[in-house]
Amino acid sequence: MQRIEHHASHGGWQDVWRHESTVLGCTMNVGVYLPPQSANRPCPVLYWLSGLTCTEQNFITKANAQRYAAEHGVIVIAPDTSPRGDQVPDAEGYDLGKGAGFYLDATQAPWSAHYRMHDYVVNELPALVAAHFPATDARAISGHSMGGHGALVAALRNPGRYRSVSAFSPIVAPSQVPWGRKAFAAYLGDDESQWNAWDACELVATARERLPLRIDQGGDDEFFDTQLQSGRLLAACDAVDHPIDLRIRPGYDHSYYFISSFIGEHFIFHMRQLNQAR
Ligand SMILES: N[C@@H](CCC(=O)N[C@@H](CS)C(=O)NCC(=O)O)C(=O)O
């Protein structure tokens, strides 16, 4: 692990670390915010997964999350959105390949060698965090758009791993919308029965855990109707009595202006679970 950025922020430190990922077979950057409280005691951890075209930089420079992480005493881990490097396959377009890992474990060549973002986020990163930072094992997960899909799927596939899950403008039914269908066909192949294991609306139907779930969606988001369709998750949750708190925010678009406006509420939501003694 090599620290490549170190910035004082809200009494703590916004760092970026570079490390060799065994799971992804490449060098990765990851944003790590250490709140002031972490100088004296271990802190819980919030994982943030960004959307299409993003790196570890978008969330740490645009969401203003450090202010809330410092207030609540939580470490924030913000990884990149795909494997990187010359040896990693890529595709034309912003919605497949680099910057578009979709937080799944690919099964199809040429993607399967490196595109294992689910395993990376759910297993390798937490082990790295435990080894290098003053973290407790209380975890929450959140994300935006493709990263909202990633957060929902990570939580739904791994009962017990996270205490709460939230998302901004998530792709809730990737099997049904153009971004998801393009990515899943490439990464998982044409047999659509294999896609269900990576689709939040399908996973919620068989979920064993009733994890607190919070979603904010901009009412003027340009991708709301075509790609995101949060109403589908509301229906899937209602069908099985899974808790969901979905808030449509009139006037807000898909950007980080939206995320930075409501990220403080997501910290309050997650801290309610993370601060409970177990
Ligand atoms: N570039 C695409 C959309 C990409 C996009 O909106 N990406 C979102 C996540 S899905 C994002 O966070 N972009 C980076 C940013 O706003 O900092 C387009 O213009 O259609």
Name the features.
278 residues, 34% helix, single chain, nine-stranded mixed sheet, 9 strands, globular, alpha/beta, binds glutathione, 9 helices
Describe this entry's structure for a reader.
- Keywords: Hydrolase, Serine esterase.
- InterPro entries: AB_hydrolase_fold, Esterase-like, S-formylglutathione_hydrol.
- Its EC number is 3.1.2.12.
- It comes from Lysobacter brunescens.
- The two termini are 31 Å apart.
- α2 packs parallel to α9.
- The longest helix has 19 residues, at 256-274.
- By secondary structure, the protein is α/β, with parallel strands linked by helices.
- Helices cover 34% and strands 23% of the residues.
- Strands 1-2-3-5-4-6-7-8-9 form a 9-stranded mixed beta sheet, sandwiched between helices.
- Glutathione binds next to α1.
The level of helicity is: 25-40%
Strand order of the largest sheet: 1-2-3-5-4-6-7-8-9
Which small-molecule ligands are present, each listed once? glutathione
Q: H/E element string?
A: EEEEHHEHEHEHHEHHEH
Proportion of residues in extended strands: 15-25%
Distance between the termini: 31 Å
The chain-level structural class is alpha/beta
Number of helices in the DSSP assignment:
9
Oligomer classification = single chain
Q: Give the tally of β-strands.
A: 9
Unreliable segments (pLDDT under 50, ≥5 consecutive)? none
Radius of gyration: 17 Å
- Average pLDDT works out at 98
Form type: globular
Largest sheet: 9 strands, mixed
EC number: 3.1.2.12
Protein name: S-formylglutathione hydrolase
Pfam family, one: Esterase
InterPro entries: AB_hydrolase_fold, Esterase-like, S-formylglutathione_hydrol
